[in-house]
Write a structure and sequence with these properties.
Layout: H1 2-21, H2 24-37, H3 43-66, H4 68-78
Helix pairs in contact: 1-3, 1-4, 2-3, 3-4
């Protein structure tokens, strides 16, 4: 659990850095903004995608590099109990 959690966190953070260097988030925002401009029932969903796009890109990067262990690592990290 610890190994996949560390890998997931590390590669996720690398995904943030890569998205900045490749300007991925800024290239996706106009598309997401355009999806909100058209009248459709999914407008709120596109607003949320635009709000969270930085995290979505970093998560996508992590899953692309580490595979399903990335998701398992995240689940392991967020399910840890508080130590007292």
């Amino acid at each position: 659990m610890v190994g996949s959690g560390i890998a997931s966190s590390l590669v996720h953070e690398v995904g943030h850095q890569a998205s900045v260097l490749l300007d991925l988030v800024n290239s996706l925002r106009p598309v997401l903004h355009g999806m909100q401009a058209t009248p459709n029932p999914d407008r709120i969903a596109w607003q949320l995608w635009e709000r969270w796009i930085s995290e979505i890109v970093a998560d996508f990067w992590s899953v692309a590099k580490v595979g399903v262990a990335s998701t398992l690592g995240l689940m392991g990290v967020v399910s840890l109990r508080e130590c007292s």
